[in-house]
Write a structure and sequence with these properties.
By secondary structure, the chain is an alpha/beta fold. It contains eight helices and six strands. Helix 6 crosses helix 7.
């Protein structure tokens, strides 16, 4: 029995627009972010999909994106589980800082390492591996069993929490995942085999705007 897993990164947030490290801070969506979420929802609605359950993080930008998607597919009242296991990577001392200011303080190379290495965390924060260490168990215990039972599951979350999932689903290496950027508001539709491997993947939109 094959199920469907849909991953959507939240629409542009106010801090994305201002070029700030966001992490676990909780800015809202911009007007563009709202439109991105609605556009992603419409793309899903056009496929005729109906979900059995939705998962999102403890942060507003992901929760609102999730709701806009559910509104678009005509399932505004669908059961939605919120859990901080799906939160964005915690940027620690970088949170709230402008990325250019961070480069001025710590140097271009050091900030690049924090942003783009797999297992080196910024001060007080998480690496991508650390993020995966909380995302992967939650996926295995709470999300995957529903998909394998044949359900259609929506996950609206964040760039790095979703990269951790995509790394597993697409069987990417550490080097490959570091090059992957996910566009805001663009749904990725996975069909899984009974052994949890990917039978098919369809991206409903343009990934060229990924950042």
């Amino acid at each position: 029995m094959s199920g469907t897993l849909v991953l959507v990164r939240h629409g542009q947030s106010d801090w994305n627009l201002k070029n700030l490290f966001t992490g676990w801070r909780d800015p809202d969506l911009t007007e563009l972010g709202v439109e991105e979420a609605k556009t992603g929802g419409k793309a899903l609605a056009d496929t005729g999909i109906k979900f059995d359950i939705a998962f999102t993080s403890a942060l507003t930008r992901a929760q609102r994106t999730c709701q806009f998607v559910l509104d678009a597919v005509g399932q505004s009242d669908l059961e939605t589980i919120r859990n901080q296991a799906l939160n964005e990577r915690d940027y620690g001392d970088l949170s709230g800082l402008n990325k250019d200011d961070a480069r001025a303080k710590w140097g271009e190379e050091q900030v690049h390492i924090w942003r783009r290495s797999y297992d080196i965390a910024p001060p007080g924060g998480e690496s991508l591996r650390d993020t995966g260490a909380r995302v992967w168990p939650y996926y295995l215990t709470d999300i995957l069993p529903r998909v394998l039972s044949g359900q259609k599951v929506l996950v609206a979350a964040h760039g790095n929490s979703l990269r951790a999932l995509v790394m597993v689903l697409d069987r990417l290496t550490r080097e490959e995942i570091l090059k992957l950027n996910l566009a805001t508001g663009v749904p990725m539709v996975y069909t899984l085999n009974a052994d949890s491997s990917v039978a098919s993947k369809v991206v409903l939109g343009d990934m060229s705007g990924a950042h």
